[in-house]
Specification:
Elements (H helix, E strand, L loop, with lengths): L8 H7 L1 E2 L6 E2 L4 E4 L4 E3 L3 E2 L4 E3 L3 E9 L5 E9 H6 L1
Parallel strand pairs: 4-8
Antiparallel strand pairs: 1-3, 2-7, 3-6, 5-6, 7-8
């Protein structure tokens, strides 16, 4: 029986993960990660599973230790106005 639509599990794994790298310029509404609980939203980032940029700017990552001494990676966006000044 043929599959009617959607992605098979083989190709679905390839679509998950980080879509942009650190230092890359993004616009507001751009998808940063897809289906990942490894990354947490930081400054100017919205979402829980799918993280999106809240404003135009440059991507950077930070790592912080939470109350349970587990390291979490936060995805942040440095706004474009501040990025131009540096």
């Amino acid at each position: 029986m043929a599959r009617k639509g959607g992605l098979s599990s083989k190709f679905y794994r390839e679509t998950k993960g980080v879509k942009v790298t650190g230092g890359e310029q993004v616009t507001a509404g751009k998808l940063i990660t897809r289906r990942g609980d490894k990354w947490k939203p930081g400054l100017n980032v919205i979402g829980q599973m799918h993280l999106t940029a809240k404003c135009d700017g440059e991507i950077y990552f930070t790592r912080k230790r939470n109350n349970f001494k587990k390291v979490a990676t936060f995805v942040n966006v440095r706004p474009a106005a501040k990025a131009e000044k540096k």
